[in-house]
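Session log. Operator J.P. requested a structure for one protein chain; no other inputs attached. Running the standard single-chain path with token output.
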Amino acid sequence: MRDAILSSRPDASDVAEEIEDFIVGLAGRVDDLQDAEFKGDLEDLVRQAQDLGTAADALGFELLAASAWELKRCCLPDSAEQIRETLIDLTEIAKRVRMGHRGAV
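Structure written below.
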């Protein structure tokens, strides 16, 4: 297993509650992305990936943000395999973010 990912925000104490809420809801967000991918709903997948990337970036989780934006970029018809691979990578990164939060998995 790879190392946990922590927020890079040097002033994280001012957004500690937001970070907490983000991480607590992260598993659900990943589930929703996976559901949209399974249904082939590219429009929903793009919207969710953009929302996740924006939130992750604002809270100092740049690697997760970059992965979400990569998912958004690859959401094109006939790119199911690339979407799936990118979503698998995003899921692993999200797990590492969750690991950094009080050791939660």
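Operator note: DSSP finds four helices and no strands in the chain.
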